[in-house]
Amino acid sequence: MYYKYTCTQYTILHQTKPRSTMKALLLLLIFTFLFIPHVLCDSHKPLGVPSNETIYNISKQLCWGCVGEALQFLFAHNLVRAAKWEFPLMWDFELQDYANSWAMRRRGDCKLEHSFPEGGFKLGENIYWGSGSSWTPSDAVSAWAGEEKYYDYNSNNCEEGKMCGHYTQIVWKMTRRVGCARIICDTGEEMCS
Fold first, then answer.
1. Which residues form the signal peptide (predicted)?
2. For a tag site, which of 55, 75, 77, 102 has the least CB within 10 Å?
């Protein structure tokens, strides 16, 4: 039996005034180094993976609110930001709720559309599409970060005809929080927002 899974990832990034202190940053870094490695190590395969691939894929679908996946997205974003000496992002459950609300609206058709009209946005949204069950949060963030090659730091613009806004949204100095959500659409495809 063949199963196809499609996923789009809307990463909602929120602009706030910097409120972090060195103490909060230190606590975040300690949390990152103490807890994330345990969550990330083979987090995509539960202990005692069934030999039946179908059962494994179905059980994986039932874990939409997994903290491990949220931490993977957060960690991947923060690796990109660290390369540019930017402060790490924090997970925002309010943004996650917003992303989930938008994903639920798109549940019927699973279209890759932003939640705001062109030019009328207040939050940043990055979209990722991946098929199958093997994509990871790091794959989505890597795809966005790969746009760095099209970004000209001197002019603060993308190369002509190229896209780099997903990358700039990740490393933007004023970005402080991130949240995302994922659902299964009525079509059977996966959608993340």
1. 1-41
2. 55
